[in-house]
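input
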Amino acid sequence: MTTFDFMFGLSAVAFNLLIAAIFIAQKLGREKLVRTFGILWLWLIIPLALVFVSYWQQGREPRILLSFGFVFFYMLVELLLDYVFKFDFRSKPITHVPYILLEYMALFSLIVVAFAINQAWGIIVAICFWILMGSLVTLYWDKIFKKR
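output
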């Protein structure tokens, strides 16, 4: 395992856990915390870009490089919609559903790359993905199970 593999693993874990933290902060109504976690999450573009360049120079498999493409595209969309244009795309299914699909493509791409590094990183990143899913359920718990 190289330094860049380790950097990717830590970045993928942080990627998932920061999104989970964003969901929990949203649930608690802590908008400043949501923004702080969101900005920290966006900074992950730096180590991920360094890893991508290293992998590209090493001639890693095209599926690994393509996986990075999904992650970077998702991060770009997030930056543009939430921070630059401040567009409320989550309120309409026609804009929210493609965003969700892109998000899951990025999240699964992180798992693909992690497993390409080794099984241990793959399992760790997958566990962090499920933590993120648990925080998503927590965020929407009241909407899913409305009190009667």
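quick obs: Residues 3-144 form one domain.
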